[in-house]
Structure of Glycosyltransferase family 1 protein:
Amino acid sequence: MSKTIVLIAHHAGSLLNFRGDWIRSLCTSGGRVICLAPDYSDQEKTAVRALGAEAIDYGLRRTGMNPLRDLWDTWTLSLLLRKLRPDVAFAFSTKPVIYGTLAAWLANVKRRVAMIEGVGFVFTDSAQPLGWRRRMLRFLVSLLYKSALQRADQVIFLNQDDRNEFVSRGLALKERTMVLGGIGVNLEAWRVAPSVRKPVTFLLAARLLREKGVLEYVEAAKQVLAVHPDVRFLLLGGLDSNPGALSKSDVQAWVNEGVLEWPGHVDIKPWMTQASVFVLPSWREGVPRSTQEAMAMGRPIITTDAPGCRETVVEGVNGYRVPIRDIQALKHAMLLFIENPGMIEPMGEASRRLAEERFDVNMVNARLSACVWNVDAAHER
């Protein structure tokens, strides 16, 4: 008899963009897969069904903390789960992990799995001292995480630092945790593209948030352009409602100054073919999918020595790691590629090899499936 798994997401697009290969794999193996999301379009429902899964809407506000609304959403989700009677509930992203796991517990779902893909704005260290509002938010979110994760049978982290932090804070029980090491990339879909040396072109693709290192990227670009005006800087990503978000006027000002090109929130792949080097000066990540995609396409990496970022670079082999918020170190790493363009191709080849060794989506999905179905021999804790 086949088993049923419910995937609880905060956004329909994330199911397709980040879980599509895994959903197809689960369906192919004979399981019944139900994908819950709060904002399905007809097109997205059709795409999920094409993978072999079922698409069902449920109520959840992606942002904000309204206790009464969140309690109601948790209760109604628990009723839906009771009706669906899955063997496994798998939740990812902050609010689904918290409220989805609690709802699955209320619904007596046999196995409850939560994935922490990054610690988020609340736990990421900022450049400024924590204000009282952020301290209070961190306290409240910690309580919610603890309440939910101690009712999870398995908690999956993408990097060891996040696991250590959640365990040390008492938010998760160590014996119920595992480190996946990245959600993986489809190496067939993301093939190596010819390296670009003229002009040397840097690409940052991320949500337009301060904690993604966008300001450091822009300041380093300004200093580089003062010496090498022919270098090209690309910025990909959409505007965001997060408290650390940059405004459209900020980004447009950089475009008007000639510092960078900003096509907005677009398909990254055509732009990656124009890039020499991929840059992500983030303050903290899970393990960034965009960097994995850049590696698969044979691009050297400049990133920070931060949790989740350091896992993507072997220093001096496929790129360079720089300290968080260090504009001068970031500029220096860029200059190494500008002044030594012969490094671009061999370092890009090294990136592809690392992607094949560490981030092959088939390998990652096999481990993820083994964890979800509790096949202990197939994964390491």
